[in-house]
Design brief:
The structure is a single chain. The protein folds into two domains: about 190 residues, NAD(P)-binding Rossmann-like Domain (Rossmann fold); about 80 residues, no CATH class. It has eleven helices and 14 strands. The longest helix has 18 residues. The N and C termini lie far apart (about 45 Å). The structure holds NADP nicotinamide-adenine-dinucleotide phosphate. NADP nicotinamide-adenine-dinucleotide phosphate binds next to helix 1 and strand 8.
């Protein structure tokens, strides 16, 4: 069987490294990593496992240079992170290069809750991902652009960290809005495994591919943590979703440049407020993947 070349951009990052590893675990896949020159050393472990490393500046290289870095590729996966210059700028350049190189599929760095359910202004990071998606709709040519949506990362740094829904040090769960509203969570590794499958899938894929480890309400998430850790949490009622909107507006006005003051609250709003809910979870497309549950994750990480 001939090998498929899958190109990964952003493999020195948290999710990108998992995606590269998930691809390297697959037979008949050749992994080519695009990295900026100063980050080549971060990729030593993936190189040892067989990945080809190509040093290239995604923002300054010509379209010919980018297209040549993509030559022969079946698909291109981006796990890049950054501001508008990366999510819109660099990814648009990559899309054009993919088109020029005849790449079949581009999986951009969407990896979030339902970005298409939010409105402009709800979250600047989400706005950028939708802005890229809009460009991709009109400029993709024959390239299949597939946005993988996975909810929030089931991870101590995200669901149990950044999102602000838990303060495990204090033994608290922090509730805005309805405790029975559901949200979707998926580990980095499961997201990476689904992405690797999508990257090599011969069948046409939809524009949006939703996957999820579990879909749970705030109360169920708390219960899963408590059952798995043996620790109990105090639920602190912070207010309604309207109160949350006001808190976001207040914090943003007070400290516009301090993203950490208000961006996590925006993700909380998107995750538990309904707009970011995934609509058509398609795990069954790749039945060999049995995603990790919240209980399993909490036990494995001994949270
Ligand atoms: N759903 C969720 O809960 C959730 C949570 C977190 C992240 N995410 C999303 O997941 C995706 C990946 O995030 P992550 O946390 O894995 O990112 P990360 O660890 O910050 O890694 C970002 C990657 O982008 C690369 N990069 C940044 N600027 C670049 C540039 N100018 N040129 C070339 N490469 C550049 C970095 O390369 P260097 O090593 O060279 O810096 C790195 O490989 C993003 O779309 C992010 O929004 C989702």
């Amino acid at each position: 069987m001939t090998e498929k070349i899958v190109v990964v951009a952003g493999a020195s990052g948290v999710l990108g490294e998992d995606i590269a590893n998930a691809l390297l675990n697959k037979p008949n896949v050749q992994v080519r990593i695009l990295t900026r020159p100063q980050s080549v050393e971060k990729l030593a472990a993936l190189k040892d496992k067989g990945a080809e490393i190509v040093a290239i500046d995604l923002e300054q290289s010509s379209s010919e240079q980018l297209a040549s870095a993509l030559s022969g590729a079946f698909s291109l996966v981006s796990a890049l992170n950054g501001g508008n210059d990366i999510i819109v700028g660099a990814q648009t350049r990559l899309l054009h290069a993919a088109r020029q190189a005849g790449v079949r599929r581009f999986i951009p760095s969407s990896f979030s809750y339902n970005i298409f359910g939010l409105d402009d202004g709800d979250n600047p990071n989400t706005d950028e991902r939708r802005e890229f998606a809009k460009i991709a709709d009109s400029e993709r040519g024959e390239v299949e652009v597939v946005h993988i949506l996975n909810g929030a990362f089931l991870d101590k740094r995200i669901v149990f960290g950044f999102l602000g829904a838990f303060d495990l040090q204090k033994g608290q769960a922090l509730l805005w809005g309805d405790a029975d509203a559901v949200t979707d969570v998926t580990t980095y590794w499961d997201t990476a495994r689904f992405t690797a499958e999508a990257a090599v899938d011969e069948a046409p894929l939809p524009k949006v591919l939703e996957v999820a480890g579990e879909t749970l309400s705030f109360n169920e998430l708390v219960k899963a943590y408590e059952d798995a850790s043996g620790k109990s949490l105090t639920i602190v009622n912070k207010g309604s979703l309207d109160d949350l909107d006001q808190e976001i507006a207040r914090k943003r006005q007070a400290e516009p440049g301090n993203f950490y003051a208000w961006l996590p609250l925006m993700y909380y709003r998107g995750s538990f407020g309904g707009k970011g809910k995934l609509k058509a979870i398609a795990n069954s497309r790749y039945p060999a993947i049995k995603p990790e549950t919240v209980r399993e994750y909490v036990q494995r990480e001994k949270l």
